[in-house]
Every structure is written in C-alpha cells, then in structure tokens.
Amino acid sequence: MLRLESDRGVTVCDGLTRRDFLHVGALPLIGLTLPGYFARRAGASAPDKDINCIMLFLLGAPSHIDTWDPKPNAPAEVRGPYKPIATKVPGIRITEIFPKMAEHADKYSLIRSVYHTAAAVHDTGHQMMQTGRLFQGGIEHPHIGCVLGYLKGQRGEVPAHVLLPRPMGRTGGNMPHGQTAGYLGKQYDPFVLNADPSAKDFKVPDLLPPDYISAVRASRRQKMRDAVEGALAAFEKSAQAKQFDDNFNLAYRLMSSPQAREAFALDREPAAIRDRYGRTRFGQSCLLARRLIERGVRFVTVNMYETVFDEITWDIHGSRPFTDIAEMARLVAPDFDRAYSTLLEDLHERGLLQTTIVTAMGEFGRTPKINPAGGRDHHPGVWTILIGGGPIQGGRIVGESDELGYIPKTRPVTPAMVAATLYKGLGLDPHRELPGPQNRPLPLVDYDAQPLKELF
Amino acid sequence: MRKKVFSLAVVFLCSVVSLPAVFAAEVKILPADVILTGPHAHQRLLVVAEDKGRIVGERTPQAQFTSAHPAVATVDASGIVRAVGDGETTITAIVDGKQAMARVTVRKTKAPFTWSFRNHVIPMLTRAGCNSGACHGALAGKGGLKLSLRGYDPTSDHFVLTRQALGRRIDRSEPARSLVLLKPTQAVSHGGGQKLEPGSADYHVLADWIAAGAPGPRRDDPRIQRLELLPAAAVLKPKATLQVLARAWYSDGHSEDVTHWAKFNSSEESVAAVNADGKVTVAGYGEAAITVWYSNLVAANRITVPHLDAIDANIFTSANKSNFIDDLVLKKLADLRIPPSPLCSDEEFLRRAYLDAAGILPTPEERAAFLADKSAQKRAKIIDALLERPEFVDYWAYKWSELLLISTRRLPQSAVWSFYQFVRQSVADNKPWDRLARDILTAKGSNLDNGAANYFVLHKDISDLTESTSVTFLGMSLTCCRCHNHPLEKWTQDQYWSMANLFSRVALKNGERAGEVIVQVLPSGDVLHLRRGIPMPPTPLDGKPLPLDSPVDRRVYFVDWLTATDNPYFAKALVNRVWRNFMGRGLVEPEDDLRQTNPPTHPELLDALVKDFIDHKYDVKYLIRTIMNSTSYQRSSQPLPGNQNDDRFYSHYLVRRLSAEVILDAYSQVTGVPTSFTQVSSAAGDSTSTYNGYPLGTRALQLPDSLVVSRFLDTFGRPERSQTCSCERQQDSSVTQALHINNGQTLNDKIRAKNSRIESWLREKITDEEALRRLFVLALCREPTASEQKKFLALLAESAADAKTTRREALEDLFWSVLASKEFVFNR
Known about the structure:
The complex is a heterodimer.
Chain A: H1 18-26, H2 35-40, E1 52-57, H3 76-79, E2 84-86, E3 93-95, H4 99-102, E4 109-114, H5 122-131, H6 144-152, E5 161-164, E6 191-192, H7 215-227, H8 232-235, H9 239-256, H10 258-264, H11 271-277, H12 281-294, E7 299-303, H13 325-349, E8 356-361, E9 365-366, E10 378-379, E11 383-389, E12 397-398, E13 400-401, E14 408-410, H14 415-425, E15 433-435, E16 441-443
Chain B: H1 2-18, E1 26-30, E2 33-37, E3 42-44, E4 46-51, E5 54-58, E6 64-67, E7 73-75, E8 80-83, E9 87-95, E10 98-107, H2 117-128, H3 154-162, H4 179-182, H5 201-211, E11 224-230, E12 233-235, E13 241-243, E14 245-250, E15 255-257, E16 263-266, E17 272-274, E18 279-282, E19 286-294, E20 297-305, H6 314-317, H7 324-336, H8 346-358, H9 364-372, H10 378-386, H11 390-403, H12 413-428, H13 433-441, E21 445-446, H14 454-458, H15 462-474, H16 493-500, E22 506-510, E23 517-521, H17 554-562, H18 570-583, H19 603-615, H20 620-629, E24 656-657, H21 660-671, E25 679-681, E26 688-690, H22 711-715, H23 735-743, H24 745-752, H25 757-763, H26 768-780, H27 786-801, H28 807-819, H29 822-825, E27 826-827
Parallel strand pairs in B: 2-10, 12-20
Antiparallel strand pairs in B: 1-4, 3-8, 4-5, 6-9, 7-8, 9-10, 11-14, 13-18, 14-15, 16-19, 17-18, 19-20, 21-23, 22-23, 24-27, 25-26
Helix pairs in contact in B: 2-5, 7-19, 8-10, 11-12, 13-17, 18-19, 18-20, 21-24, 23-24, 24-28, 26-28, 27-28
C-alpha cells in the first residue's frame, strides 16, 4: 500500500488519508530514543562522505563478444552479427546494440579479463561476484553490500543494503546465490523489496500496514502493545530484549519516516524521468536504486532477472526455454542500454556519481563459438564487466581477452579481485578481518586478491 | 649488574614503605621449583599474595630478590632467574618483611647448545606473526614466502627458509645478511612492516641459529608434551594487574619458560584483558579465563573478580536448594558476591516450563488446575507430566532433527520421513543418548527401513562426515584441522585424518525403491592424509589407534570409544546442549564449541552434570528433569540490584526470545487458527512445489523438514539444516521481523480469520474486561494488572466510541497488541 506519490493524499476507507496515517503513526515516536542502537553506529545519521554502490546483476550472463568485447577480426562463427561502434572515449569500442552506452563511456571502465575456474553454472558465479568467494566447507559468505551494512550501519532510517526487485531464483545449480549476509547473520541481510517497481500497483510488502488497518487503528495497536507492561523489569537488562525493542522502534520509524517513505515512493518521480529509465522492471528498479541512494541507502543490488528459466535473459543458449543472440539484441540489450545509460547520466546530473560506484556484471562470459542453435553457452574462461563512479575511474580498459575471446590475454582478473576493487572503492580495507563462523577471522577477500589499482 | 639490582631494590623498598600494608596475606613464589636446563635457560618468577589458599594479587614489582648462589643462577630485579653454572640454589623474595623462596636446579650449562628449529625458531617466528593467517601462513603465502600456519609443518618450513628462493633467505657465513633477518627488521623493504628489533633476544635466536648452520627439525628433538599456565587461578580486585607465566614441558623432562613466545587470550575482555606479554589487567566484575597457546598446546586459568559490595553470606547458605545444581550455582554466586533472585511465581514457572520443555503454552484449564493444586510437590509433578506429553516428543524430535540436519535439502522426501521417524521414536522411547549415537553411527542397510542410515546418505563426503560427527556428538569443530593444525586447540591435522579414516569404509549404493540408498561397510579402503598422502591408523582423536589391517567395523570401534564412560567429550556435549535449552546459556557457549580455550563458566557443575548423566545411563529425560527441578531453573527473571548485569552465572532466569517455530505455534494456539503448510522449497530456495503431506493442524514443531515454505519461520531464524552448527539458528531480532509482525500476513491473517477465537467470543458478546482477562491468561498465563486493565479498557472504550472501528476490529487490535508484545514473544 505504497501510494505515497500524491500531494493530495490518497483517501482510504476510513476517510483518513495515508498522509494522515503517516502523521499519526509518527506521533508516538516523539521522544523515542535509540541511544544504544545509534551509538553502535556512530554518526549514522550525520551526513558523511561515504561511498555508495549500485550493483546491477545481469543474471544469465551476457555474451562478452556480442556486447562489450567485440571481436571484429574473428571468424564469423565467433564474431557474431554485431559490429563494433566507437564511443565517447577514443579506443573504447562496444557493439552497436548499445548506442546509448557509447555516449557515456567516460562514466564507466571495462574490465575485459575477468575469469573464474569454478564449475560453469550460474550459481557459482553469483556467489563469487557478489561475495568474492566460492562457497565451500559449508560457509556462506556475505554479499559485499551486507558487509558494508555490517561495518557502517544504516544511515538514518533507511536500510543499509536494499535488494531489488526480488532475490535470485532458480538458475540450475541448486546452490545459494550469495545475496544474503551469510555468516554475519540475518540481521544484516539486505532489505528485499519483493515487488515489481514497474507494476501499476507497486507497493513494498510489509513496509506499511495493510489497507484494512487504518491509521487510527495502527496507532491504537501500538498504544495497546505498550500497555503490556506487567513484566517489564525482567526485560530491562536483557540485550536480546533491547534488540527486539530497538527493531520494533526501527520498524515504526521505517513505516512512518518521511525519509524511508520518500525513498520508496517511485511515483514521486516525474513521468518523463520514469520513461527515460524505461517502464520495465529493470528500468524502474534502476530508478528506484537512484532514489534509494539519494535518500541514504548505502548499497543497492538490482537483479536484472530472477531466473534463467521462465524469462528471456542474457542466458542465450539458443534453444528453448532459452533465447538466442538475436532475441537478446532485440529484447534484453535495449532494456539494459537505456536503463544503465540513464542511471549514469541521472546520477551524474545530480552530483551523485562522484559518491556512487555503479557496476554491472554477469556471472561469466559465453562461448566464443556460436552453437548450432544460434546461441552461446556458459564460458567462465573470460568475460567483461562494467565499473565506474565514486573513486573508480571511467573511460578505461583493464585487461584484454585473446583474439577469439577464450581466455584473458593480459591482466587476468578473478572475482575476488573485483570484490577487492569494490571494497577499496567503498573505502574498506579488502583484507580487513571479520569474525567468521566460530570466530575464525575471515578477511573481506582472500589475502592474495588485490584491488585493481589502475582503476583508481 | 649487582649495583643496578641494589639501586632498584632501594627504589622498591622506598615505595614499599610508603604503601599501607594492604596485604595481610602470605606471599609465595611461582613456580616454587625451577629447573633450568642449558646455558640460555631462564625462568621468570612471580611473587603472589595468598589468602586462605587463594591467590589474591601480585607482588612481584615490590619484591626484592636474592640468589643464594649467584654462581649457579642469578636473579634480576624483575624476578628473572638465569642459569650460570650447574648446581642448586634458592631464590628469596622479600615483600613487606614477608619472605618466600623458590628452589632452583641448574643443569647442562656446559653442554653444547644450538637453538632448535622446532622448539625455538618456529615459536619465535610464530610470536612475531610471520606465519599467521594474515601473513606468510596464508594458504597462498605472502610475497612469495609461504610458511605453514603457526608452524604446524616444521619440515616444510625449514625447506622453505633454507632452500627455496635459491637459498637467499639465509646466509650461513654472514647471518646478518640473511633475508629472514633483513626483511622483518625492515633493513630491506618488508610489506609486513617491522616485526623484529635488530639486536633483540629474538633477533639473536634467529641469527645464532643461522650461524650454527641453520639445522633443521630432527627426529630426536624433544617434543612439547604439556603446557602450564601460572597461576592456575586468582581472585583479583578491579584495576589489579597480574603477570601470568607459560611453562612448557618436554619429552626429555626439561621445561622452559615460554611466556615471551606464547599467545594469550582472554575469554572475557570486559572482566580481564591480557596483553601480548601475558600481563592481565582487571577491567570489571565476573570471571574470565586466560588462555595460552604455544606450539599447538593450550592451557587456561581462571581470574575471578568478585563484586566489592559486602553481602550477607546467609543469602547463599540459606537459599533454597533442590539438588546438586543449586549447590554449585550458589557456590559460584557466593564467590562472585552476586545475590540470587527469589523463586519465580507459579504462573511464571508454568509458562516457562511448558515453553522450554515442550514448546507450547499452558491452557487456561491447565493453569487453573496448577494454581489450585496446594501440594508442595506441584512443580515436580507438572514437570513429570510435561515430560510424558506428545508435544514433548514433538519438541525434542524437532531439536534432534535439527542437529542431525534432517531436511529435503539433501534427502528425498521418503528418506526424510524415515530418518525423522527414527528420531521421533527414539525420543518417544527416551532412548539413552549413547544408544542413539550408536544406532546412527553404526547404521547399515536401507535408509528407508533404517532411518538412522540416512546419516551416511547426508554426509557422503568423508570430511563432511568426520566434521559433522565431531560437532554433533562431541560438540567440537575439527574443520580447521582438515588443512592445518587447529590454531586454538590441541588437535592436529594428523589426528583429523586418523579420525577420518574411521569412516573410510562406509559405502553407499542405490536401492530398488525411489530414494532408497543401501549403507554398507566395505572390508577395505582408507582415506589418505591430505598433506602426507598416506593412510593414518584409524584413531578416535586422542584414543588408541586401530591397526590399519584390523578387520573390525571401524565405526563400531569409534562408537565404543565415543560412548565409553570415560570419554571426556560425548556426554558433556549433550549435557551442555540440554542445559542451554533450559538455562538460556550454555555452560560452554556457543553450545557446540567445546574446547580447552573456551572453558565452561562452571567447570565443576558441568562435570557433576556429566557424571550424573552417565551414572543414569545417558537418560536424557532424567537430565531434563534434574535441571527443571533445580531452584536455579526456577528463579525469577526479575533481577535484583546486585545481579542485574549477570548474564551467565544464573542468578536469575535469563529471558530469551522464543524460537521461530514456537512463536508461530503459539500464534495458532492463541488465535485458534492453525498454520497451513502446503509448499516445499527447493534446496536453493529459488522454487517451490506443492506438498500435501502436512494436514491442516500440523504444528511447526511437528515438521520433519526445514524446507517447508514459511515466510514467518524464515524471517524469525529457522535453521536451514545445511551445516551442523548451532549458529544456524538465529535468535537475533531484525527490523524485517518487526515489520512482518506489524504489517505482514502471518499474524494479521490469523487474527482476521473467520474461524478465529475472536469470532466465538463475538458470538458470546464478550465484555472488554472478560476478553482482556481471557487473552492475557491464554497468551501470557497471567491476568492483567490493575494498571494494564485500566489502560486497555480505556483504549478499548476509545475503539467502541470510534464509529469507524467495528467490535471485531477492536478485538483484533487487542489480540495483535498482546501477541506482538515482548512478553509474549519472550520466555521469562
């Protein structure tokens, strides 16, 4: 029930407006203190110069040759149907299916030599690209955004890490995808939107009371809940009880905070800008990501798709239920080209690109040789990812693949090095240790993985 | 030297004179018996004050030391004794006119001496941090140099240091030019910074060793056998300091003071912190264990810091005691001067006992009967009755299913049911814990006929099997030792692979039915040591090895060791798990992290519980009954001024959030609306399928599978059952939970359901007062207080006056508020 866009307010069945609800809901919060909570996160609500990040996860894995690492001189069965085009940055060429991106090449760099050596299933790549590690020995590592939230806490009333629109679903490997806080614990999991921002009736589940609970009732509920007080003394000194209360208070704040309400109120965006991003799930997710960053969220992960099975994605095996190269160029690439370019442009115009890293990545590349079905299959041997914003320089190319796009030719880059680069960009020592399972110290990324210094 | 000692002594004497005589106690030197072996041998002495047999403070800085025979051993002002010549002498320390003595024997000062790579060089490098996980001990090494983590592999380390990198790392003819000295002293650039002071004692150990030809580890090197931490216990005051000493004992009978190379840790920094040199500083009240690690051995001592407030000793002696638990809990409380809270009320006890033992709320009828019962034994009677209830079986079958990872994550549905039925029947039969372990660990045949056999289907990988078995039945993690010696514990990689070899002959083959696997034991087969590449004699940790060619089922040999009454881990692991269930905190915490460097808060109590459990033939129900009948379990959760900060000595009942499953079931119980479980998630959590095996009315605690779809259970921290670890269950609160209770469907839908309890109350035309009273009794097992009643009735009157709020909605809000309250969601 997130109809927050309207200046006149939305009338609900009890005659009060949603704005009234938020007003009434906010009243009991006056004088509400969370000293312990915020003391733990020193300066959380103070303005800071911390770097934020938007991670666009291109689930399905884009074909590097057909996108950002064209091989015009390779044989036809490798080079594919699309010609390279020049971009705003001399020397950077991408394929013609990304015309808008070409105009913004100064805002991102390309890492053309990313590779991994684990099994060529989607799930392993998801783990490594989002956590820096392959999950082994039963340890689930935390997503980079969750680590950031764990170390820096949330800013004000909005969650530190938001995941849009839904968590990754089935991609065939039957493994975790690395989108949780893993061993750090559930309390550091991302706040998952679990809704489609492009849907007409878009709302954030659980964020606001359901329609049938009017503002008056919601307020009365809180008062009644506070009236259960017969055993308060037993809870006074319990850290667990305090955490429970703190979270209830945070939930109230989130429900009634203008900052949080604003952050998720996509309908407040002018129609023109909504159109610019594209009225797709991905386009509107990118727009929502910008809104969230603008309002204090530290890290936003956007899953471009949720599964490779029930939708047309980057997973272009050629045969059904997958799509082929042409369908990808027709349906998938324009969606990305528009949303990604608009996001960079929009952040830049608002002065946010200086403090916001934007990265777009898939979980591996695709086989250089086109298969008989007119598609390309999984190829972790080499692929290209996009990164820029914040302290990370745009307009550069790191590494290169060989002539046929099989393996890195120079500067091989592991997913751990990508993670180390993101951590460094976020102002964190990539080898800082976290208390892992059984308090085993675990560095953010393995000690041998260094950030790509040529991007800073 | 002598002059310096003298002048220092004067300074100390002056300071002593100016000090009031705060220590009425005796003084004593630790260690009282010193044997110095070899020309470089030394031992630091500690002068401590002792009162009624307990060490109560350190007096070393104030002591004046003298050696009876300086030609045998000298002692400096700080109390360090150094070998000079063979013979015997005594060292005397004088403090405040009190005198203490230590006997010193010096041997082998004329014997040829070189620093031992195994016993000196590696410990020195370890202390400097060279082979730590963050530096050259990392799996990939650092800067091209890779050492074994904390020196577990001296042979390879010696090779690496003396032969690798074209032998540039050491220069035998000019040791100071060796890279291993130039780098850590920053004479040449070193990524790790300066780790060694040129000319320091440690520098000379390395330099002298190189000068002596850099000899490698030898087969006949004396091996460390025992590590001692002195003093073993001390009772200190806030801000006091105490030096602790680490002494290593070797296979040839000699001992060395290894304090300077040992690694110290405090179990509780807020009570006592310890620095790298072993100096303890008291920070607060309570108890802390100082642990020391040296050359893969560990030892611990105990620092007790009692509250200063005078407290009437009668509080402890006259307190209610039901059994031995109370004696030992009260003893600890008396030592720390923490007063115990009084007994909880009957209502509090009833709700608490039902939730802790069976995961249910007492019904209003059960409450009324209990309150009406005037017998003195009524609590014991209700405990006995609870332990016979089917919900008790549900609760404990769920708990052990969680421990055993029963789930469709890795087992087909048919196997899940068969494993679950095995566990459930075992709980219903109150099968002794040793029998349960034996049934599981020696299971054979079809997993569908013998549910226990699924244990081996779940843990197909031998490392997984070894490590899970260790956590499940020994309460300890061996995972570290798969690749290297345990950095915090005495277990070695050799012991790991010796233990793993006990499981190397388990074989699986597919059966004829869907989901059927046959577990067999092969007559041959070994697992190879990860690093050595050879099979190790099958050995259960520190038990006796079984010959590699022995034909017996190695699993049976393991279980015989496991369930022997003198096994120090098996019963302890279970006792600690059960204790934590009721007391809110394990005697060892986390509950499955039993190790020497993580000592229990109440060692004597844990030992007594274990002995009692074994004496009663591993009877889990008996153990539960003992704990629940103790006064310690039945204390009020309301703290007293003197015990409000106590979260581990059981001075009051520790309030805790109920588990996800218990809350959900309690919502169903109070609203009268069951939860429907109709979907099962895929193992990766990314798709769901319909499953009709759980008829409506199935409680969350009756689910055999952790993948049954439930937003509520996931949000509130239901364990995934993917790895054996108590850490999987999350008791933490999150904002998502709070949002879900407020705005989500679980609770709101139950309250709004057409068939909810509210509906029948509406038909009765219930009054506000009666609704409030009934709801409190149902949900909180108590009636509302006068103040609560007043507030609630006012708010309900407000609802009634509000034309937009229906009567039903008013009652829905009432239900919501009580069911969302902390008192409901917590046990207290």
